[in-house]
Amino acid sequence: MKTDLEIKQDVLEELEWQPILRDAQIGIEVKFGIVRLSGIVRNLAEKLVAENTAKKIIGVKAVADDIEVKIQGNFTDTDLTTKINFDLEWNTSVPEENIDVKVEDGHVFLSGNVKWGFQKSEAEKSLQYIDGIKSITNTISINSINSEKESPINIEQNINRAFERSASIDAKNITVLVEGNTAILQGKVNSIKEKDDAQIAAYLAEGITNVKNELKVEYDAIYL
């Protein structure tokens, strides 16, 4: 089992390995496997890369991202709203007519309704590299209707096959249950990143509007 000091060193080295973070000022604290990131970055993209990088490290149980985005330059909320709407309009994966955008002091709030889980996540991802955005709060609802042709068992099988195709998900340790429009994920994974990837994959299934992620991060066996 990794010590907190070993986890901290691994996170530090992996952050330094990311080109986008070479000039970032990021502090790392680790206690009982929980990583706290602090410091200042230039944009939201750097903040998210730092958080996702820490999540990939074996031994990390959770990540508290307290990194501050310090915007360089002047960006009005009106300018950001215009840029956001433009990017959403040109993203063919996103039904921009169903999404409402609100910007307050650089903080973006997304709401509305979409049919698929990937459309919700894609709307957020398409904005992450826009300069001037400090944070994104995504409350878009998913109103997918389960096809009568797809039984819960079929949906479970479809999600399992998606896990098996993924290079980042160990499908044999995950159990999928479908109740109504909710997919329930149970079992164990080796990292927070794998847990997040499984949830994203499950959201892609037709008829799934909610994912209850009960996966546990267990990594001790790797070091026995």
UniProtKB/TrEMBL annotation:
Coiled-coil regions, chain positions: none
Entry keyword set: Signal
Residues of the BON domain: 3-71, 76-144, 151-219
UniProt cross-references to InterPro entries, sorted A to Z: BON_dom (IPR007055), Lipoprotein_DolP (IPR051686), Transpt-assoc_nodulatn_dom_bac (IPR014004)
A Pfam family: BON
PANTHER family noted in UniProt: BON DOMAIN-CONTAINING PROTEIN, OUTER MEMBRANE LIPOPROTEIN DOLP
Protein name: BON domain-containing protein
